[in-house]
Structures are given as structure tokens and as C-alpha cells.
Amino acid sequence: MSYSRADIHIHTTASDGFATVEQVLDHIARVGTLSVVAITDHDVLDASLWAYTHRDHYPFELIPGVEVSSADGHVLALWVTQPIAMGMPLKETSAAIHEQGGVAVLAHPFEVTVYAGAISRYLRHPEVVQEAGIDAIEVHNAGTITPGCNLLARRLAAQLGMSITGGSDGHSLEALGRGWTRFPGTTADDLRAALIQGVTTAGGHSWPLADYLRLLPHWFDTKLPIPRGVKERLARPSQS
User: Fold this and answer.
1) Whole-number Cα distances in Å, 29 to 47, 167, 187
2) By three-state DSSP, how is residue 92 classified?
3) Mind giving me the DSSP string for 191-221?
4) Contact 72, 90 (CB under 8 A)
5) Contact 69, 76 (CB under 8 A)
6) Tens of pLDDT along 124-164?
7) Which end of the chain has fewer CB within 10 Å, C or N?
């Protein structure tokens, strides 16, 4: 049995990525190391559906998907083609994904910059993940900044006996493929079967340092919003 790699956590300019969907797909085709890819922009399906519509143009398989901002952290909704509402509890988010025949993956569950209550909730009550209907846990995210985030996610998945995934969470071309899910087979259907059977593995590396630096302004703007008037003063050329 041959094994392949998938990167099922990728962003484009449709949300907060640095490259267009066309640039992302062309880059992946040039590198040639991935067999399955999912574009998972934040709460928008535009780029993912464009990619899926043009899937015959590329030498790898594409899964339609989106990264949903639930009330309890981010969830990768794979094999979905309709929007999933933001801000719902984890259980309702999973149910909405399953209604479309999709697969729900809990993304970077211990990244406190995304969900401040993650460590307390998932360490003290790990059973809530299964009770919510989550299908798999992302145990390697190439872009995490919380120390030990991936290790804790891997321990949680092992404790619960759940399927695991890895993804680059790539926002730049250089980050693509730095996190991956390894599975038996070569197709998207093979990946889905592997997730159901619990035979996936995950691994990879961290983002290039430059990517963290490029995302800092966005991170501060979303996590620590700067008042509009202050922004305008900062952007105004100094008088000398």
C-alpha cells in the first residue's frame, strides 16, 4: 500500500492569506509533494469552491472546505459546499457540518490566541470533544505560537482514541505543506476512509519566521484592536 500526504488547512487572500487561490494551487502543483489539498479560508467558501470547480486542472485532488469560527474555537469543515454559521457552540457546528455530509476536525485546539478557554476546557473535560461530534483532531499545526500546543493536541487525541490530522495553516506559499496528514492511498476518498478508520498520521515543521512577522499586524488588529483614530495618526506621515 502506498502512502500520500495531504495539506487540509490552507488560507488564501479570500480570508487572511497572502496568496490568491490560483497562486496557491499553482505552487502546490510545481512542488509536487501533496496528493490531496483543502482550501480552508476563515468562514468563507469562495476560494475553496473555485478550487474545487477547477480541480481537473491540477495533478492533485481537492476537497471543498472552510475553517469555521465556532464559539469554542476553530473547526475545519471538510467536504462541505455551503456556509456554516459562525459563533455556534462546538456541538452545533459539528452537526451543521455533518448535515452536509462533511467531516469536522478540531483545529489547533490548544492555541490560546484563538480560544482562551482551550487549555482549561479540553484538559479538564476532554470528553466534550467526542460529545460534540468532532471526527478528528489537528495535532500538528505548522503555525501555532502557544508553546506545547501541538503536543497537548496529540495527547488529547491519544487519550480519546480519535483520528488525527496535520496541516500547514499556511498563509504564504512558503508555508504550504509544512504541516501534513499522511494516509494510505492517493485520493480524497482514500483520505476520508483513513480518517474514518483512524489510520492517519500527522507531522511537519513550523512556518518560516517571516510568516509570523507578516501576520503580527493582523494578529494585533484582531486580538488587540487599535481605535480608528489612533490608526489614522499612526499611518499619517510625521511632520519634520
Assistant:
1) 17, 17, 15
2) helix
3) HHHHHHHT--EEEE-PPPHHHHHHHHHHHHH
4) yes
5) no
6) 999 999 999 999 999 999 999 889 999 999 999 999 999 99
7) C
Phi, psi dihedrals of residue 183, rounded to the nearest 5°: -150, 155
Looking at this protein, which amino acid is placed at residue 33?
Answer: T
How far apart CA 72 and CA 91 sit, in angstroms, is 9
β-strands 103-106, 73-78 pairing: antiparallel
Cα gap 93→79, rounded to integer Å: 14
At 74-128, the pLDDT tens digits run 999 999 999 999 999 999 999 999 999 999 999 999 998 888 887 788 999 999 9
Tally the residues of the chain. 240
Q: Are 141 and 204 in contact (CB under 8 A)?
A: no
Identify the CATH number of the domain defined by range 3-210. Answer: 3.20.20.140
- Buried b / exposed e along 52-61 (16+ C-beta atoms within 10 A): beeeeeeebb
